[in-house]
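FORM 7B: Structural annotation worksheet

SECTION A. Query
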Amino acid sequence: MALAVRFYDDYRPAPGNYLREEVLAGFARQPKSTSPALFYDRRGSELFDRICQQPEYYLTRTEEGILASAADEIAERVGPSTDLVELGSGASRKVRLLLEALHPTSYLGVDISEDFLLASTQRLAADYPWLDVSAACADFTDGMRLPPAFETGHPLMFFPGSSIGNFTPAQACRLLRKLHGLMPAGGSLLVGVDLIKDRETLEAAYNDRAQVTAAFNLNLLERIREELASDIDPSRFAHRAFFNDVQSRIEMHLVSREPQDVTIEGRRFHFEAGESLHTENSYKYSLDSFARLAHEAGLEPVACWTDPDRLFSVQLLRPQGALHS
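SECTION B. Predicted structure
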């Protein structure tokens, strides 16, 4: 029997139209590219959960270690009677460390993948019967508002996993401004930020030996074939991920193994051999460069926690008083 989770669907994307529009626009670009938001159908979300368990993928376990050691200090800085809002909630594992330290009044999970969101929030409701659990199926990067119950007080918005790195610095600044605008006067943002490090460690994280990341990347093509009218064949593409040190980002691509034409919704697109569809960026920051980005968005870094090897950071941001409305 499903547990009671308050569900907000006011901002639910229209999956078919959204996927169709994004894919057709992305395949028509030169060079071809798509948004990483398209990865997260149910299977994509499950595959990403498996990526987080791979030995090469340091990001998840390192962020969890930081949160485990810093949770009490975070709770002290945030204060009592906090509402917790998790952006891109996914499997909602990391947030449990905060739930147990903060004991928030209520929790809101926000994710674009409805099935995965409902399953994860129902698990939280079962495991924390004292917690008022809500779920919002929404793309929080595109004009959503917090439900009325979360618009007052001083909610903590939790944006884990270095998802901020999926945006270009200019896009990340705009997103931080949007999150700044979502926050009530007493709100704050806790964000995971991956740090610049050696190329070998970075590239191994996106090219795991079990090839789960490759399956995750190729699943985008499976989704296009299943949800749109398309003859695209994932076996004719290969996963590629590498560190672009000039841009300070990991790039993920799907590379055509041969010259080919693919049809999507009645439109034909040509790939040369070796031509790629650019599916994701993951920007890496220094502590100083991310602080400058936060300042530009009207936010003030008030605390930062890292692991001993400085692979990853968790940063607490608050609106700059003069800029917060």
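SECTION C. Observations
Residues 17 and 228 are 10 Å apart (CA to CA). The mean pLDDT is 91.

SECTION D. Sign-off
Analyst initials: ____
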